[in-house]
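DNA mismatch repair protein MutL
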Amino acid sequence: PRLANQIAAGEVVERPASVVKEIVENAIDAGGRRIEIELESGGTRLIRVRDDGCGIGETDLPLALSRHATSKIASLDDLEDVASLGFRGEALASISAVSRLELISNAADDPSGGWRVVAEGREMAPRVTPAPHPRGTSVLVRDLFFNTPARRKFLRTEKTEFGHVEEAFRRLALSRFDITWLLRHNQKVVHQLPAAADDQRGHERRIAALLGKRFIDESLHLDIEASGLRLWGWVGLPTHSRAQADQQYFFVNGRVVRDRLVAHAIRQAYRDVLFHGRHPVFVLYLELDPRVVDVNVHPTKHEVRFRDGRLVHDFLFSSLHRALAEVRPNHQGA
Ligand code: ADP
Ligand code: MG
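Tokens:
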């Protein structure tokens, strides 16, 4: 089982950033409203995520580390409208197979309550010991890949690994404006984001904090709804510099997505209205009935499958086209 676990671990655990993503998604699923992430050495020495969510009770704590133990699907029917970020029940098991993992949690309001389990590279006799913790959960991942030297070799410099973590953090913080976020690296606060007001100004403040004020200053805000689809967010105007070319964030029902159909629709609209050769920059949110989209095609690749791809493509294209054409009124296109 040890080998199987380590092989499977490769699927979700590629580098510190993927560990952060999985653990933070759990914290979000648990209803955390304040999530603190702390890293040492780009996350290779330590990743610590603390949330104030529902917590895990004493008896469930060792289960959380076992493969295919998920609390998120009660029945097969739930699969249809699973709204939570993950449901595979193997992230923690996979991470614990390739690191020294510690889970401290408290599902009750008594702050002197709380329990801890430790797992080390799968050499686990999950012993549960009392450990005070406020309501919520702390996950500590130390020495990632300590027992898999081949994998460890693929880790890059501390700076590069932290860069990937920060990018994962941006996506997460852009997906939940209502959560208070803290990101610390080597004892320094990198991002401190209070929960944002649920309005355009609140959202823009957070985006400016994450992507720079220029992003907002040189973007167009849009919010368009048609045939059960809603597209809202910000698209960059042609003043955006090349340096910002990688600022492309697209969320489907709150989940970050990289999708060819989506990319194509955006590129087409851009190309049609704006200058050629411009890289679109955007933070966009597509909302639609969860039953017509499958976001769990692959555990880590950010793929989606729309039931009616044509409809989504045309909606994205026409919404963006309309919005962009408004700010370039001399454009003669469709
Ligand atoms: P999945 O998220 O796919 O269910 P994981 O391996 O990521 O699988 O987590 C296993 C289980 O551990 C979850 O289903 C959940 O019950 C519990 N869990 C993990 N992290 C947290 C957390 N931060 N707060 C509460 N429960 C958690
Ligand atoms: Mg999970």
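The radius of gyration is 21 Å.
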